[in-house]
Amino acid sequence: MAMALRMAISREREYLADAGAAELVGSPQLMARALGRLERLNQPAWWQRLLGFPAPQEPTGWAALLSSHPPTRLRIARLLAMTPPRPDLACFG
């Protein structure tokens, strides 16, 4: 139980670090894009897939509870949620 709590705190700190980095960079979208690129680099190349190298899987169940980092897709979603709405794209119909 204590380990799961510690890992939950670690995941929350990771989200806070992402938010801080987005503020330093000046754009949550740029941070989200960078995380997406890093995630793609973590995927096997086409020739590795042909040879049967498995793609990394997102942890589920207990593995997710005991993971120190949140899944990249959730980190990207939080960063994109930080993006302020653009008034120039609003529909005034």
Plain-language structure description:
Belongs to the peptidase M48 family. Its main location: membrane. The structure is a single chain. With 93 residues, the protein is mainly alpha-helical. The protein has one domain. The protein contains five helices and no strands. It has helices spanning 2-25, 28-41, 46-50, 61-65, 72-81. The model has no long low-confidence stretch (mean pLDDT 87).
What would you say about this model in short?
InterPro entries: HtpX_protease (IPR050083), Peptidase_M48 (IPR001915). The chain is an all-alpha fold. The chain is 62% helix and 0% strand.
Gyration radius (Cα, Å) is 17 Å
The helical percent reads: 55-70%
Q: Please, how many domains?
A: 1
Number of helical regions = 5
How many strand elements?
0
Structural category: mainly alpha
Order of helices and strands: HHHHH
Q: Sheet with the most strands?
A: none
Percent strand equals: under 5%
Query: Stretches where pLDDT falls below 50 for ≥5 residues?
Result: none
How confident overall, as mean pLDDT? 87
Give the terminus-to-terminus CA distance: 53 Å
Question: What overall geometry do the principal axes of the alpha carbons give?
Answer: flat
Subcellular location: Cell membrane
Protein name: Peptidase M48 domain-containing protein
Keywords: Cell membrane, Hydrolase, Membrane, Metal-binding, Metalloprotease, Protease, Transmembrane, Transmembrane helix, Zinc
Cofactor: Zn(2+)
Write the layout of secondary structure elements.
Elements: H1 2-25, H2 28-41, H3 46-50, H4 61-65, H5 72-81
Family: Belongs to the peptidase M48 family.
Membrane topology: Multi-pass membrane protein
Protein name: Peptidase M48 domain-containing protein
